[in-house]
Amino acid sequence: MKFFKVKTVEETFSLIDEMVGKSGQTEIRPIEEALHFVLAKSVTAAENVPAFDRSTVDGYAVRANDTYGSSESMPGFLTLRGEVRMGEAAALTVGFGEAVYVPTGGMMPPGSDSVIMIEHCEEVAGILNTYRQVAPAENVIKAGEDIREGEMLLEAGTWLRPQELGALAALGITEVEIYRKLKVGYLSSGDEIVPYQTQSLKAGQVRDINYLAITGTAREWHMDVMYGGIVRDDFEAFSKKAKELYDKVDCLILSGGSSVGAKDYTTEVIESLGAPGVFVHGIAIKPGKPTILAVADGKPIIGLPGHPASAMIIFRLFGERILKKLSGERLVKRPERIFARITKNIPSAPGRSDYIRVKLFEQDGEWWAEPIIGKSGLITTLVKSDGLVEIVSKKEGILQGEYVPVIASR
Known about the structure:
Blueprint: H1 9-19, E1 26-30, E2 38-39, E3 43-44, E4 54-55, E5 59-62, E6 76-83, E7 98-102, E8 114-117, E9 121-124, E10 127-130, E11 140-141, E12 152-154, H2 162-170, E13 175-179, E14 183-189, E15 193-194, E16 206-207, H3 209-220, E17 224-231, H4 235-246, E18 251-255, H5 266-271, E19 276-281, E20 285-286, E21 292-296, E22 299-304, H6 308-327, E23 338-342, E24 346-347, E25 353-363, E26 366-371, H7 380-383, E27 387-391, E28 397-398, E29 403-408
Parallel strand pairs: 6-7, 14-17, 14-18, 15-16, 18-22, 20-25, 23-26
Antiparallel strand pairs: 1-13, 2-13, 3-12, 4-11, 5-7, 5-8, 6-10, 9-10, 19-21, 21-22, 23-29, 24-28, 25-26, 25-27, 27-29
Helix pairs in contact: 1-6, 3-6
């Protein structure tokens, strides 16, 4: 009971940032195998992208001031000198009153500063009739406009998406140093818990749905998962199994046994794994108050409540932050939010952050959030929901029609 002193949500995030560090283990990977890994070293551009001025349209490279005054009723006239072929250097120079055809992505010929689209001109016997004027740099990407030589392209801690890999490829980078994929261990506890595959339940038994819900979420976050099975409410057996799993993984997740009941050994087991031990035992949040967070010899340990909805909400709020820090990923302050209007009044107790499951829908050009009311043990409330509405600890509730922050589900 001495451990069960609740922290606010804000205190919990601060403690996670203070107590959890990155794993630090890196490897070199080809960029085609680096998708959804975290960059371990910043990347500085060694060249310009593009390397030369390029046209963004099919058209004619010109000097912009040669087109001034051109219109449908009074076209301009330019001498057509030739064309630039795709993938080749521009050999022709554009002089006063001249134009050169250039395809989309083609190199701008010297002397030109803009491109008039092919739709806005007409070639007649070597003369280009221009039916509109263009401004300097119109329809042109300048050398280095996308990526400039010497600038930092990607900062260490960047989560590598397809677009980041494309940017690396544009610079000719073929491999990067990344943090290796984390391995997460999951262990369920409780005399009432049986494998989810169990077809015929005895009185008092509950299928282990948290295993699939929590480890599935971890896999969504690009983690490897090691399943430790189900352990009964026996301290020696629980402690032995937790230690075996702890030794093989980067982060240990324990489901169930996080409250203050006589047979809840989670805190004692965690304390036995290493220092400094438990730093959060109880959060001023609903659902999910009986949550345990710890670090044992550098490895985070997450003790989740047994109720499925509570476990998933806590894991998405705090587990994601812990695993992101451990993976080396740069953090935003809080999970991404959208704003929606709430469809009904929702009361809340001051001093406690509440997270209400909601279904999102659009009406009259606005997003609305419809609360899904249900107890924390109901997994279907999460199945039906599109996100969570946060009622911060300073508020005593929200009013119908009020704009509220919604943490959208992935």
